[in-house]
Every structure is written in C-alpha cells, then in structure tokens.
UniProtKB/TrEMBL annotation, chains A, B:
It catalyses: L-homoserine + acetyl-CoA = O-acetyl-L-homoserine + CoA. The gene is metXA. SUPFAM superfamilies: alpha/beta-Hydrolases (SSF53474). One of its GO terms (molecular function) is homoserine O-acetyltransferase activity. Belongs to the AB hydrolase superfamily. MetX family. InterPro entries: AB_hydrolase_1, AB_hydrolase_fold, HAT_MetX-like. This is Homoserine O-acetyltransferase. GO terms for biological process: homoserine metabolic process; methionine biosynthetic process.
Amino acid sequence: MTIEATQKSVMPALGNREANHPSSMVAMFGADEPLVLDAGLSLAPFQLAYQTYGELNADKSNAILVCHALTGDQHVANANPVTGRAGWWSALVGEGKPIDTSKYFVICSNVIGSCMGSTGPASINPATGEPYALDLPVITIRDMVRAQAMLVDRLGIDTLLAVIGGSMGGMQVLQWAVSYPERVFAALPIATGARHSSQNIAFDEVGRQAVMADPDWRGGRYIAHGCRPHKGLAVARMAAHVTYLSEAALQRKFGRELQDREALGFGFDADFQIESYLRHQGMTFVDRFDANSYLYLTRAMDYFDIAADFGGSLATAFRNTKTRFCLVSFSSDWLFPTSENRAIVHALNAAAASVSFVEIVTDRGHDAFLLDEPEFFSASEGFISSVAKARGL
Amino acid sequence: MTIEATQKSVMPALGNREANHPSSMVAMFGADEPLVLDAGLSLAPFQLAYQTYGELNADKSNAILVCHALTGDQHVANANPVTGRAGWWSALVGEGKPIDTSKYFVICSNVIGSCMGSTGPASINPATGEPYALDLPVITIRDMVRAQAMLVDRLGIDTLLAVIGGSMGGMQVLQWAVSYPERVFAALPIATGARHSSQNIAFDEVGRQAVMADPDWRGGRYIAHGCRPHKGLAVARMAAHVTYLSEAALQRKFGRELQDREALGFGFDADFQIESYLRHQGMTFVDRFDANSYLYLTRAMDYFDIAADFGGSLATAFRNTKTRFCLVSFSSDWLFPTSENRAIVHALNAAAASVSFVEIVTDRGHDAFLLDEPEFFSASEGFISSVAKARGL
C-alpha cells in the first residue's frame, strides 16, 4: 500500500486515532477484500477514511451513518483539518445537538472516489505506482454504499439505526435502503432525488467540460505533470454554486450591490458582490478538492437512477421494505425540488412503507440542508428520537 | 476606416445592398459622428451592420425596429449568411407573418459590441491598427440604443411604429422607451427584465470566467496571437444554454436517454443525449461568435438597471410616457421569470401608461421567445395591428 504517500493527513490503520488529533481513522481493505464495482471491475486494495462520534452501545443498536454530499467529507462534527472550519454538519450533529452524540454513535466515511483520505483518482494505482487518474473505474452511488457497508461490517454493526444524508448523501441513503433493506432501521434522505434529472446532468456536464477544457488537466494526468487544472475546476465550482442557491437568496444576499466601489467600473473586474463571492468560491475550492474526484463524483450522481434496476418502477425498488423513512425537501431548492422528493414519497407509499415527508419553507435553496434551519433540525431530531424509541433505545 | 479588413461579409456603405445577396447593409459613422458612451468616452469611427425588410411608407410611419438578443444578429428574416440557417425570427417576421413585411418596414441592426458586422472588440482600433480587444470601452444597453437611434436618424425616420425584442433585445426596447419616449409609438418587450438579477449576473460571470480561464484568450488579444479561446467560450455557451431551457423541457426532450449506446459507458464520453446536445451547442457556437463580444454583451446585460438612473424608481423612468406597451413573458422562463416582467407592468401602471401583459403558458423556458409559439405570435400580431390602426395605418 503506497496510498499514504499522497494522503498525508490520514492514519495507516483502522481505529488508530490519536486523542485530539483531527485526522481521520482509515479502514484498509486488502487484496482479499476487493470492492466489487458496478463498472464490472474490482478495486483492491482500497481504503476509507472516516470519523466517528459518540460511543457504540453494547448491543450495537445506536449507530447512525451520515453520508456526505458531492464536495463534503467525513468531518461532520469536528474541525476540518484542511480548512480549519467547523465540521459541515456540526450544527446538526454533536453533544446536545439534534443528532445527539451522547446518545448515538455517528459514523461518516469519505466516499470512494473522493479525495479526503479514501481511495480516489488521486490515489496511487499499485499496478503502476502512479496516481490512478482516469484509470480508476467510474464509481457509482451503489459502489460508495457497498464500500460503506464493508466499513460498517468491520465496525461490527449489523443494522444501522439510521442512515442520513443530503443531496448526493441522500442518494446514498436511498441506495442503502434498496441495497441493504434489512440493515437500515430508518432512513432520512434530504434534498435529494431517486435519479439525476436532465437539468442536473447538464450542469454537471458543464462542470466536467470546464475541468477538461483546462490544458493543465492533461488528460487527467496533471499530478504526474506537476500541475493542477485550477482555473477549470474553479469555473466548474462557480457554475455549480449558482445552482445551490435560490434566485431569491441571491437577490436578498447580493442583489446588484457593488463590491468595494461607488459606481460601475466599466471593465471586467468584479463590479458586483455576487461576482466577488463566486470568484472566491471558485478559488478556495481548488485548494481543497481534486479535479478528477470532481469528475468521478458528478458522474456517480449522473448515473444514479434507482428505478432503472427495477424496470423503471421506484415502488418496486422499495417493495417489502421495513425501513422507516422521513424525507425532507426545501421549498426553494431547484436542484432537487420538492417534486423530486415527493415522487419518492409516492413510491414509498405505493410500496406500503412507513414514510413521513417534511417540506421546509425557506428561500435558501439547495444549500439549506447545510445551514441552520430550525424546522429541519427539529424534524430530524423528532424522527431520530421516534425511531430510537421504536428500536427500544 | 480599416474595419472592413476584419469584416469581410459586410458592405462598405449605407444602403448599398446587392439584390439576393444575404450580406448586410452597413451604416458608417465617421469621426464627426461619434457614439457617446456611458463609459464616459466616445467611439469614432464606428459602423452598424443592419438588415431591412419591406418598404418604408411615404410618411415614414410604418417602421418597426427589431432588437436582437445576446448572441443574435441582424438576420431576422433572411437566411443567415454565416450559418446558412433561416433568420432567427423568420417565423414571426416576413410576408404574411405576424409582423407582416408587406405592411411594415422592419429594421434590425447588429448591436454595437457584437461581431456580425457592427463595431465590436474584434474590429480594428484605428489608433493602433490592431483589434480593439479589451481597449474597446465597456458598452451598455443604452449605448446600443443610442447607436440604433443614429441609424434610425440616418434612415430618415422620426418615430418608430414599434420597437420589439426579447431578452437582451427586450432590454433595448425598454431603454428605447425611456431614452426616446417621443420616438417610440409602441413597445413590445418580451421575456426580459428592467435590470439583471443577481442570479443572471452570476451565470454571466461564470461564462466570462470560463472564457478568461482559457489560456488562448491571451488577455483578450487572441486575434493578434492567431488563436481563439474556443474551449472556454464553448463552456460559457454550455452553461448559458442550460439557463435558456426549463427543467421540464430538458426532461421532456432528453430525460436520461442515452446517446448512441445501449448502456452506460462508465467513462467520461457523452453517455446521455443532454451531454451530446450541450457539447454540440458549445462547439458550433464558437464558429460563429467572438469571445470578447461575449464578454462585452454579457457585461452590458449585467450593467442594465433602468431604475438606477431614476432614484431606483421604475415608475419614474416611465413617467409621462405616451408609448403603448405590451409585455410578454413565458411561464417556464426562469432567467427572466414572469415576476420580472410583471414588475415592469406594475411600474407602467403606476406611471399611468397604456400597457397590456400576456403570460404565455409553455414549458420551453426562456428560449420560447425564439420558437414557434402560436399564442405569442397571435398576441404580437394583435398588438402590432392595434397600434398600426391607432397610428392611422
């Protein structure tokens, strides 16, 4: 295993975390434990970087798996060692928080294909001694979930109390419920869809083309060439970022306000605050994210279509499920609109599943699932409490 | 004047059009007729390429000015000499069409800053003998309209029967009504807004950054370097194109249909039809459009904010107007949603103007204004007929 060479901040073995050290634990899977991929290949060896919070109880019934979104990571509730900022869901997950780590054992692993310590295109391909780049097989949401299940196995957990996630994380939640129905007591998919829409594929394709148009991408082999497609990746991030916000939120936050000036500049510098904001989003993103991982993870989202494996019937995908579901959508989310979430609810109803549905009224768009939304938090807390009670906790 | 060197298909002088030749007429404005720009500078010499259709009547009361959108041109109703395709509004404008050129004299000029024969950043700067590139001052919608007014002057027309246009063309219509209220008998702004929203600025900025991220952009001086930022401009076009369509139209036209294959390819080629479609849109666009013009015209749209010159009051901008207005919006247009159009209607009502408003129900998004939309056509025909009658035609 030479993966450590490119992943400095991760620990070499499962469960080996120093006290107060923010770096992740890493689960290593060797040649005898390959990850079977939907692409028809196997990946071995591979590794998953992960974080846990709280304590697993004696009968291992209080474990909650959190699934992160496209550019997220395993640092749900601890300071992010790369950015130094608070964990991305630290308002929702933690001691005394809606998902209370004094009651529950919370796990989050960096998805396969990403770049925060789990095996991805920037990892070393043991067959060549070079980074995989595009030689890594295309990864699917089901592959991510399959890898997570191997981690949950290794942690000795049979059935998860709940699987929770938003956006691409919500896709993983749905996939968990379909792939391992008996292992998911409750599922909380947030701001997601059962398949990527044509518009979502379109925006992802714009981002990928922006990355691949950058000559520093070098056919994906930029690490070997000692460069990075920073400009292309920044443009991809800017385009995506617009889709995470609602028109109303943009108008409220930025409107046509000018940046550091009294009047229009009559040039192509950032005149408007929204321009500066987007440029900043693009520039800071490239410091923390790998361009090829961006290609792989957007591809995984585009390929996601749960019903496709069941003759186009989402209800069939969920037939005989015992999992308790709660879906959450946000009224101004136009990337995964309420209608997409409601389609899942309808399918679950058709499958006679236990399902509740909450639409949170907010103007903050898709990003709302990462923000301090009291109604969302209280719905999550209520749902998790009720399923914990149902499981005898 | 050395501009002709870069604009091969245009004619050298006003009104000098060969029979059956699709090339445009060109109005030349010399050093004694500078275009006064909002940037605080003057542009001289400059030229406007334009087309006319039909005959101007004896009292010059039947002239209709058509204003084109961002990537449009003067070829409203004749075969486009660059692409060979039908004129962009040939379904609306022509003999026997809703805007009937057997009754009306229709004019359309390529906007200043564009690249279809009018002076723009690709034109030769007489001071240097090189293309202007970014030395051309930033152009505004008001500058475009000011130049059009000089053309209308030269054609000997005092008051236009109507000014018509969609999207950026609609901005010009509104600006005409504000800048030259006595010269606009009727105005038909379509699928537009009185100012660019924060979200629209954001998408434009993504496009500009995509162009400027391309190393072949060369700080704008790509013509002198013998290259073109094709990749960056293609990405910009792809991003913009998604915003021209509605989510419903994309789902209906493309859905998750695969392109020339039975199953997912597990790679980064175009798997989905929507990907092929967008790539095609990007690739064909770069053959017909200048990258710097794209920067200038998106900037002009971003700067547009009619109310800003009137203390933020749109109603004040239109005070005492005698122009008859008809506004048209499309229900699924999320770039210039009905609410933006309705805000203009409200301001016109507050200004006691004559105004009617039609929202066309369609799932085709912003692009609907360029498509065969029977209700839109009949509304346009009805409005133009009524104002022609009111003017005694």
